[in-house]
């Protein structure tokens, strides 16, 4: 019976191990297929034909534009939309990109345009640079994005982590002040308690001493009467 039970357990464990292995293989294949499909998928609401991705005239804004494009994209058309900036890094994975159209967008030349400016400068394409100009602010209207001075743009940047750091410092100062007030209050009450304890102890000792004296006087008076 013991031999049969051991053999049965071994077979069961082997089947479980094979089942787990099979499930892992299937999951790996599904993940690979999903990744491959995601890389080659045409983003909505654009249309794709070979390596050409047409997103022009779709009413795209910076927040609604696709965050990724097929890795084999050779031409990307983003003109005649409502783009004010491009999401940071959106064009970096497109190593096969040879042509892009960006004209007809109301580019906002503030801190958010820094990525597009840097990307344009890397391309060294004069025709492309001439088609991308500022629509706002009014002082920079018509200025080519590639010709913007980085220092001027940085002055318009407001980084959330700087605000968070400032808020954290203020909170820390307030916390330290509250802790100091609490510590001072504790020290004050401890000293007051110590003073009251000393006064109570002195009063008790005086009461005891006064009782001893009065008791001694009564004892003397009783002794005198007996005499």
Summarize the structure.
Helices cover 56% and strands 7% of the residues. With 227 residues, the chain is of the alpha/beta class.
User: End-to-end distance, in Å?
Assistant: 111 Å
The percent range for strand residues is 5-15%
Number of extended strands = 6
Mean pLDDT: 79
Query: H/E series, N to C?
Result: HEEEEEHHEHH
Number of helices: 5
For the biggest sheet, the summary is: 4 strands, mixed
Low-confidence stretches: 1-11, 32-38
Structural class: alpha/beta
Describe the structure.
With 227 residues, the chain is α/β, with parallel strands linked by helices. The chain is 56% helix and 7% strand. It has five helices and six strands, in the order H-E-E-E-E-E-H-H-E-H-H. It has helices at residues 2-40, 114-123, 126-130, 150-154, 160-226, and strands spanning 47-49, 52-54, 75-77, 99-101, 107-108, 134-136. The strands form two sheets. A four-stranded mixed sheet has the order 1-2-3-4, with no helix packed on it. A hairpin with a 2-residue loop joins strand 1 and strand 2 (52-54). The relative contact order is 0.06. The model is unreliable at 1-11 and 32-38 (pLDDT under 50).
Topology:
Blueprint: H1 2-40, E1 47-49, E2 52-54, E3 75-77, E4 99-101, E5 107-108, H2 114-123, H3 126-130, E6 134-136, H4 150-154, H5 160-226
Parallel strand pairs: 2-3, 3-4, 5-6
Antiparallel strand pairs: 1-2
List keywords for this structure.
elongated, 6 strands, two-stranded parallel ribbon, alpha/beta, four-stranded mixed sheet, 7% strand, 227 residues, 56% helix
